[in-house]
Design a protein that fits this description.
The chain has a six-stranded parallel beta sheet, with helices on both faces. Strands 8-7-9-10 form a four-stranded parallel beta sheet. It has a two-stranded antiparallel sheet with strand order 1-2. It is built from eleven helices and twelve strands. The chain has helices at residues 34-43, 65-83, 93-106, 118-124, 136-140, 142-151, 165-173, 180-187, 214-220, 231-242, 267-275; strands spanning 3-4, 9-10, 23-28, 48-53, 87-90, 111-113, 129-134, 156-161, 202-205, 226-228, 255-259, 278-283. The chain is 38% helix and 18% strand. α1 crosses α10 (231-242) and α2 packs across α3. The protein binds D-glutamic acid.
Length: 291
């Protein structure tokens, strides 16, 4: 399948209805990409899906940039060879803000990245006080700073690199709920009041793990804000690239979950993956540092 990424137009066989169900690989360091997978699947229910988690290297937010580039390229090499996706969604801000150029250089498969939703945040804010909540890696990226400069130069932007939130989201999904106090402590720096009395009214969820905790954040926030999740925009982009849904396609098979360690696959986690449509799980060990 060939996709003209520049124009967002497609010359794919899918659009001409000759290739059956396209295969979409959704990739993250762990379970955060599930928040993106849900939206993409809603937009393209006819596709077949592989959800890949590089849990052997989780969390990506703490890896040095050169280590992360090498790691994602190595894991993707194997995923592309094994699953032969028609399109890959890098459902990870920490990876997308760094590795997309290298991925596009190494593979012919089209990649859709997830990057901090600064532009919609700048459009939504009324107070012009915005927070970007992300991993320590994403807040340090030159890419993130360029985005802010380009789209939110008239806003006061607070960058919060949360050390533990992605891990908390994983724990919740694995059936180990996190204490209110711990969660409140992680999101507290997002809420800022300036000297002139203006305060944060928009928070960007710039890590795909965080929408998994959104209902908790809403309850714990010291005042109501708009939380921006980029996943619906990603789903629109995927549909744009693959063309419209093929209504005649047979019902898609249950999704496959592929893990590079699988150590955290507790019974409650397997159950919540099943509820999200991931019916089978493959563990292909790939320890960090041995790629
Ligand atoms: N879900 C990933 C993101 O969107 C990061 C979590 C991690 O630190 O591995 O940034």
């Amino acid at each position: 399948m060939r996709i003209d990424l520049m124009a967002g137009a497609t010359t794919s066989a899918v659009a001409r209805n000759v290739v059956p169900t396209p295969t979409i690989l959704v990739f993250d360091s762990g379970l955060g990409g599930l928040s993106v997978l849900d939206q993409v699947r809603r937009a393209r229910p006819d596709a077949s899906y592989v959800y890949a988690a590089d849990d052997a290297a989780f969390p990506y937010g703490r890896l040095a940039e050169p280590v992360l580039v090498d790691r994602v390229l190595a894991v993707m090499e194997r995923l592309v060879a094994v699953h032969r996706p028609d399109l890959v969604v890098v459902a990870c801000n920490t990876a997308s803000t760094l590795v997309l150029p290298a991925l596009r250089q190494h593979f012919t498969t089209p990649f859709v990245g997830v990057v901090p939703p600064i532009k919609p945040a700048a459009e939504a804010t009324r107070s012009r006080v915005v927070t970007l909540l992300a991993t320590p890696g994403t807040v340090a990226r030159a890419y993130t700073h360029d985005l802010i400069e380009t789209y939110a130069s008239t806003c006061a932007v607070t960058l919060v690199g949360a050390p533990n939130l992605a891990g908390y989201a994983e724990a919740e999904l694995a059936g180990r709920p996190i204490d209110d106090l711990e969660l409140a402590r992680e999101i507290a720096p997002c809420f800022v009041t300036l000297e002139d009395g203006r305060r944060t009214d928009v928070v960007c969820l710039a890590c795909t793990h965080y929408p998994l905790l959104l209902t908790r954040f809403q309850v714990l926030a010291p005042w109501p804000v708009t939380w921006i999740d980029p996943a619906p925009a990603i789903a629109r982009r995927v549909t744009q690239l693959l063309g419209p849904v093929d209504r005649t396609a047979p019902a898609a098979a249950p999704m496959l979950g592929a893990f590079t360690a699988g150590g955290g696959l507790t019974q409650p986690l397997r159950h919540s993956l099943m509820l999200r449509g991931i019916g089978s799980i493959a563990v292909e060990p790939m320890p960090l540092g041995r790629q």
